[in-house]
Specification:
Layout (H helix, E strand, L loop, with lengths): L1 H25 L2 E7 L2 H17 L3 E7 L2 H10 L4 E5 H9 L11 E17 L14 E5 L5 H11 L9 E5 L2 H9 L6 E4 L3 H10 L2 E3 L6 H8 L6 E5 L12 E13 L4 H13 L1 H6 L22 H10 L4
Parallel strand pairs: 1-2, 1-3, 5-6
Antiparallel strand pairs: 3-10, 4-7, 4-8, 4-10, 9-10
Length: about 325
Amino acid sequence: MMVYGFRLSLRLAAGLIAATSAVVASAQVVGLGTTQTGATFQLATGLAKVVSDKGGMQMRTQPMAGAAQYAPLVNRGDIEFGISNVPELHYLIAGTVITERPNPDLRMVARIVPWYNGLVVKKDSAIRSLADLKGQPVPAGFTGNPLGKVLITGYLANAGMTFEDTRQVPVPAFPRMFDAFKQQQTVTSIGTIGMAQLREWDAALGGVRFIPFDPAPKAVEAITRHVPHSRVEMVQPAPGRLGVDQPTTMLVYDYALWANVKVSNETVAKVVRALFANEADLKAAGPLFAEFEPKRIGDNTGVPYHPGAIEALKALGVAR
C-alpha cells in the first residue's frame, strides 16, 4: 500500500510538473529594445513590467547602447518592439543622421509621454544661458549613441552656436556623459525631468538646474532643424520636477513605443490595451510616467500606426 501510494504521488507530481511546464512554454515572450541606462531604460522597464503583469505576455527588455543599434533588429523582426523619442524614430525610419540604413518596417504602437529635456548644470554654476557654454567643456562625439550629438547640436543652435564654439569632451554614449558631468569633467549633461540621474547629481553636486531655451520663433526653428517634431514650452516648478526651481523654457517631444510591422495584430493590440487600461500601474512605475494619458496613446506622431494598434485604438475610442 505504501509503495502504491508513493508511486501515485510520483505520478501526480510528474503530471503537475508537466502541466506547469506546458503553461510556461505556451506563455508568449516578446522583446523590447531599449538603452542600457538613463531615462529611456527607466521608461522601458516600466512599460515591460505593466505589459508582463497585465498584457497576457512576457515583455523582456533588450538593452543596447542606443536605438541606432536595436532599431535594425526590430526592423528585421529579431526583436518585436522598440522605444525612442519621436524625432529619433523619424531618423531611424528614414535612415538619416543617426543611422546609415533606413528601417522602413517600423510602425507606431503607442504614444507614451511628453519628454521634457535640455542641458543640466550645477545649481551654483555661473552658466545661466546656452550662450554661456561658449568655451566650456561640453560632452561630444557620441559614437555609440548618435542621438546625443543630434540633441546637443540642436540645443546649441538655439543660441546660434555649434560644437566648435565649445571645448569638446568625447563621450561614447549617455552613461559616460552622465558620469563625466557627475565628476565635473564637463559643465553640463543632457537631462530629462524624472530621470534617476537628476537625483544622483543633485546629491553629489549640491543641486542641479536646467538651462532655459530661447523661445523666440527663429531660435526654436534652429532647434527643430536638428530635432524635428519638437517644441519649446514653459515648464513650471512642481513636485517631481527636480531641476526646475523657477519657470523654465524646455524642449519637449513625445516618446513612442513601436514595433515591426509583421508582429501579429493581436500581440500589438494586447500591448495597446494593457497600456490603456493600467494608467495607475504605469504612474506607479516612476516619475517619467507622471503625464501619461491613456486617451493620448493614439496621438499622431507623423509615423504610421501598426494595423493591430489601429484596431485596438478604434475599439477603445482613442484613434486619431
